[in-house]
User: Fold these one by one.
Assistant:
Number 1:
Amino acid sequence: MYYRMALMVFTLRHLGTIPPEALTPELLLDELTAEDYDRLLDATIAVKKKRQRTKNAAPDSGSPSSPSDTTA
């Protein structure tokens, strides 16, 4: 559970308004309610899914084919 709170701290430091030095895994373990945790976890999962869809929709960046390949 501590590891999950540490990851949540990392995310919240980038997105939240709590001063970074005050935001610790211990703070979340002591103060975060189960409902709050579930909402943050749901938001994290939604962002991951959105990023995956964006990644899958991006054009393939493979090597471009050479025009000489068809004439060889």
Number 2:
Amino acid sequence: MRFILSLFLIALLFNFQTLNAQQANPNNIGSVKGLLKDTVRNYTLKSATVSLFKSDSVLVNYQLSNNYGEFTFKNIALNTKMYIEVSHVGYEVYRKAFTIIEAGQALDLKMLVLKQRDILLNEVEIKIPPISMNGDTLEFNAAAFKLDSNAVVEDLLRKIPNVTLWGDGQI
């Protein structure tokens, strides 16, 4: 029984040593920071989505820029090609590639300027029915009926469906 307990304790101690060996060396990391601005009005862009990718498009981390348009990514591995992608509503997506080459390097991308994106909407056509019933009253839009320039009310009434004009002018 003591042998099994001793073996278990040795195995447990070995596992802690292995876990400790797998922790990242704080001297082998860097950071990157930047400031987001608008091209037209030079506004800082708050709440923009800033994503950090490896060069093979694997997402490493992401965050929103703060109220001053600033962002910071820490614990970036050395000698790994990466890029930052910034997106914000109404702006074109911005990408910037970089590599941290020195341990403890704090790469400052300075000011990243995002270009406004024009959004073209499809046309909207509003159609109003030419005739409607409002209680016991028949309402019609005279502009919806094509008539000659010298037409009279009688000509308009003849074009309205379900309205009959008698020869003596009665409706």
Number 3:
Amino acid sequence: MAAHLSDDTGCEPGQAGVFGGSFWQYEFNTDKSTPDPEYRVRVNCMNEHAAEIPAGSHGMLCCFSDVMNYIHWIHASPTFTNFELDPERFNKYTFYRAILENTALLVRGHIDLVKEATGNEPSELIFAGGASKCSLWAQIVADVTGKNVRIPEVKEATALGAAVLAGYGVGIYPSIAEGAKRVVKWDKTFSPNPDNKAVYDQLYVQWKDVYKSQLELAEE
């Protein structure tokens, strides 16, 4: 169930609707844009419970995507593996956390890929975009990669970057780098949890093995 606050001009304030389809959405129309400062309407409804699930999601693996390979562009069918019919341990929050963990494992895979190609590895990561509004996700990325994860105050990096480029274009900033230094401010830094890192080190090896097997099935 998702909720949405809308100021669409085609509707009158106070009107509400429920729309059934791929998921059920409740919409309430207002006379002005009304964002939820806690992001509960769209993103935080699962995070509190998912944070209670231990690192590694009780051993369950989510294989939704693999490290990019542009020469061999193929992905295995999205799968969840190694879970039991136990609603106490393997519930919707476990599956949700496993999805977040899959994305973090992908980040680690791409770090390894770039390191193999260039010999370089970052000392920290900057996490931006809409997903960076999720503190749980940021912490998982830090735990999986073993690196500090910095979150900017303005999460919408594309819009902020466009503003910096515009400022440079009209001469407000002497360079793009200087514009970024002036504009980008930092909100939080997430440091890796050593215990969780140890769990994810094992999970990373398992995830690569499982995905390799799934990919072989997809190619048959």
Number 4:
Amino acid sequence: MTNDLNTSFERRWVTLIEHHLPASERLITTARLRTAGFEGVELTRLIKRGKLERVERGVYALPSAGGAASSHAERLAELQLRFPWGVACLESAASLLGLTTTEPLEIDLALPRKRVGRTPQAAGVHFHWMTDAIYTHGQTTDLSSGVLLRTFDAAKTVADFCARRNKVGRSAYLTVLKTYLARGGPGGSPGATAPLLAAAQVCHVERMIRADLAVLRA
């Protein structure tokens, strides 16, 4: 009987990993494991066998899974599993998008003001409340780290830096703006600023960004 149970246990695990979990995903929640039929005792067994690592409450990692994500990206993925509404913004988004060359020591997550009750608590995390219009504008996903992450596009990230320049510093804002322009993509030439100005309008900083663009291109 025990052998039958073990065989069933192993079969369900292999089925989950090979057929229901994308190769790029390294993290999995308790809820998803339970949906696949794994309960408390079996989760303990998976941990003892080295199949799972407990990251934090409700979140596990697959040690053998592919995807060499940076620690910052992995931490973002863990937090987005804990806080489904969380979207990487500001320094975290800039790091993912290559708008900055330094990896942030802490994490910035945007939350929709009307859809989340109270501010969550998590060590090393800054939560930023946004109106629905600002929160939804420019949302995208990023796979550059090997982990699927929710973030904002480059134009929206620059606008967010401008809107929060008193908190992050004007120099940090100008750095991401210059990097954005230097790429030569959206916003990289006078005729390609539409995405940036659209994001700036939503974030109520269009006038300031237009002024800074004029100075930088003078």
